[in-house]
Write a structure and sequence with these properties.
This protein is α+β, with helices and mostly antiparallel strands. The strands form six sheets. Strands 3, 4, 5, 6, 7, 8 and 9 form a seven-stranded mixed sheet that branches. Strands 1-2 form a two-stranded antiparallel sheet. Strands 10-17 form a two-stranded antiparallel ribbon. Strand 11 and strand 12 form a beta hairpin. Keywords: Membrane, Transmembrane, Transmembrane helix. This is Protein kinase domain-containing protein.
């Protein structure tokens, strides 16, 4: 190759390299280090405003008071958490503040948020101050303390909780008013299982979301049907649901002389708190007693079936066909009520009446009043094909019945309030009166038993066929104390005050003496008799019985069950007439025996008895006095046991003739027997006296 050719080839290579470098793929620049995009922190003011909107939307309206709402406790955790706090508080907030707010100061934080007076920086400063002074949610609500945002001189300082010293910090100077005002919306109480009395601040908000428009209005109180928010109760039966309750509000009654609502509430809550410890199925359960400043409330479980009176009225004017299951359920529920009454009265025999019975028994060398017992609890029936040996019910010996005694005047020995005890012949034995609190054993009395105070609970039914549900004794608040309404009496000639339909005769004949526990036995006897009238004759029959009141001579001292003349009481001719006519009813007057007839005889011979045990009685006399709750329970258990045994034998003890369409109620009594003049005793002052039962006609 010539030199020229070599130079030409070299030139082409050079040009090709130049062209390759010019037109070839360019290299990428070397990669740089990765950088995160800049984080834009949300504005704490905007986050605070958003939290405030969500907080206000979480409030639930309350009806007590009606112009305020409350924050359910379940919403607090939803609103306050670490994520929320980090966005609302300034960036400089420490982890200790986050831990304090989320652990001990959630409610404090939300109260400050809703007030719309604290900025994020203010919130941080206040939370730091609360952590420093150990001011937590447990110290809410806070009373208004003087000199908020500063300190008073030593001689003007007011004692308060140490944690409340936080309010002396300057930061509170411009936000304290709204804090004290708003805290009520965050401190609505939760009705706990193991707490009964709640002392709340004036202006507090109760977690009551609904209240009936038509309450039951009484002289001393008003009772509402109400609902407690589902997050503010611990009743497992209604978990996640509102709890329906009966809310009783006591009236101040400043115009009523001698009455103080504070004292009445204290007495009633004290009685209910003790009675609640009995845990009896047939005693209504009080849930809470709340004092909200000057307002006083007591909360009870709600009876969805209404009162026994309402149950009677729902049965229709005509009697329903007799049904063994219905009659058995009546017997079982009456037995349950009497069992509750026996538990309420207790087993304390060291009362004055109890000592009279025991003393007479000691003198006779025997146990007073031998009773019939059934060794099976009344709530358990024998299984199909199973039979048990029950002691049969015995018909009382009418020759020894108080109905055939001559009319004698009996002085009640129940003591007055200042008569605590009396001594026996044995100087080593002292007897504590029935009204005295010196006895250590629990014993209570109701004092106002009537169909309106016996409530029906349908949700307690375990058997859908049981039409009666569960009956419970209510209005237990004045049990034993009888603070004002049941012990205080006006002049019987005053038209404004009349004797209660179900009161025992000693309420009139022994006007100024305390009531014994046997007072309740008379009342339950009246209720049982009217229940039998409803079963046999329907509401028309009961209305006919009530219409007999018009023939009473003095409506201020006489009832359908007893009449009083000059402080001497006897069983009313009306009650004696109706009992005799019921026992002559085809259902009751039959050779094979009748459960209803045995119940009516029990009412006649052991319950509607005027005479009470007195100091010098012997056992035979005491056995003719009014029964106590223990004896009544045993007698009813015997009737129930016989009914169970007869039912297993396919007998007709519970009912014989089911059709009641052509059976008329008893003919009304036209004229009362004339009252008899009571003699006066000359043992110092005139003594208040009563008489035993009059003779009655019938089996």
């Amino acid at each position: 190759m010539s030199l020229r050719q070599k130079h030409r080839l070299s030139f082409c290579y050079c040009n090709m390299g130049t062209m390759r470098r010019f037109f070839g793929r360019r290299r990428k620049p070397p990669p740089e280090a990765y950088q995160e995009p800049a984080v834009v922190r949300p504005n704490p003011e905007e986050e605070l405003r958003s939290l405030r909107i969500r907080l206000v939307q979480s409030f639930v309206p309350s009806v007590i008071p009606s112009d305020k709402g409350f924050l359910p406790v379940t919403e607090i955790d939803k609103l306050v958490n670490y994520a929320t706090i980090r966005l609302v508080l300034p960036e400089k907030a420490s982890t200790d503040v986050f831990d304090f707010v989320c652990g001990h100061g959630k409610t404090l934080f939300l109260i400050l948020v809703v007030g719309n007076e604290a900025s994020p920086n203010d919130l941080l400063a206040i939370m730091e101050s609360c952590r420093k002074h150990s001011m937590t949610d447990e110290h809410l609500p806070v009373d208004r303390i003087p000199c908020v945002g500063g300190k008073l001189p030593c001689h003007q300082r007011v004692a308060h909780h140490q944690a409340w010293d936080v309010f002396h910090d300057k930061i509170w100077a411009h936000i304290s008013f709204r804090f004290f005002q708003d805290q009520a919306m965050f401190t609505a109480p939760v009705i706990l299982k193991d707490k009964f009395i709640y002392e709340l601040k004036e202006g507090c908000v109760l977690p009551i979301t609904k209240k009936a428009q038509k309450p039951h209005i009484g002289h001393f109180s008003t009772v509402y049907e109400a609902e407690v928010h589902h997050a503010h109760h611990q009743d497992d039966r209604y978990f996640g649901e509102p709890l329906k309750v009966a809310l009783k509000q006591l009236k101040p009654l400043t115009s009523e002389p001698g009455y103080n609502v504070e004292t009445a509430w204290n007495h009633e809550t004290s009685a209910l708190e003790e009675i609640n410890k009995l845990h009896h199925k047939h005693l209504i359960r009080p849930l809470a007693a709340l004092r909200c400043g000057s307002e006083h409330y007591i909360m009870f479980e709600w009876a969805d079936g209404g009162s026994l009176r309402e149950l009677w009225e729902s049965q229709g004017p005509e009697p329903k066909d007799l049904d063994p299951d219905r009659i058995m359920s009546v017997i079982e529920e009456i037995l349950g009520i009497v069992g509750a009454l026996s538990t309420l009265h207790g087993t304390n025999s060291r009362t004055k009446t109890g000592n009279v019975v025991r003393r007479a028994a000691d003198l006779a060398g025997m146990a007073a009043g031998e009773r019939l017992t059934v060794p099976v609890p009344h709530s358990v029936k024998p299984r199909e094909g199973e039979t048990k040996d029950y002691s049969p019910i015995t018909t009382p010996d009418t020759s020894k019945s108080p109905r055939n005694l001559p009319e004698i005047q009996v002085r009640f020995v129940e003591p007055s309030d200042d008569e605590v005890s009396f001594r026996s012949e044995d100087p080593n034995r002292s007897y504590v009166s029935e009204e005295s609190d010196a006895s250590s054993d629990e014993h209570w009395r109701h004092g106002d038993l009537k169909p309106e105070n016996i409530l029906q609970f349908n949700q307690s039914q375990t058997n859908n066929s049981r039409w009666l549900g569960t009956l419970k004794i209510a209005d237990l608040g004045l049990a034993k104390q009888h603070v004002f309404a049941t012990a205080r009496r006006k002049d019987m000639t005053n038209q404004k005050f009349t004797t209660s339909h179900y009161e025992a005769p000693e309420a009139v004949a022994n006007l100024h003496l305390p009531r014994s526990r046997r007072f309740d036995i008379w009342s339950i006897g009246c209720v049982i008799l009217e229940f039998v009238i409803i079963i046999l004759y329907g509401n028309n029959g009961l209305a006919s019985f009530y219409a007999q009141l018009k023939i009473c001579e003095n409506p201020h001292t006489d009832t359908l069950y007893f009449t009083v003349d000059r402080n001497v009481a006897r069983v009313s001719d009306i009650a004696s007439h109706w009992i005799a006519e019921i026992l002559n009813d085809p259902e009751c007057n039959r050779a094979g025996g009748s459960a209803l007839a045995d119940i009516v005889r029990l009412v006649r011979d052991r319950l509607l008895v005027v005479e009470l045990p007195s100091e010098n009685m012997v056992p035979s006399q005491i056995s003719r006095c009014r029964a106590d709750a223990g004896e009544l329970k045993e007698k009813l258990e015997a009737i129930w046991g016989k009914a169970i045994h007869d039912e297993s034998q396919r007998g007709d003890y519970l009912c014989f003739r089911k059709d009641r369409a052509n059976i008329a109620p008893p003919a009304p009594l036209q004229v009362m027997k004339p009252k008899r003049t009571a003699a006066k005793s000359r043992l110092g002052d005139d003594l208040l006296k009563t008489q035993p039962n009059l003779e009655t006609v019938g089996p």
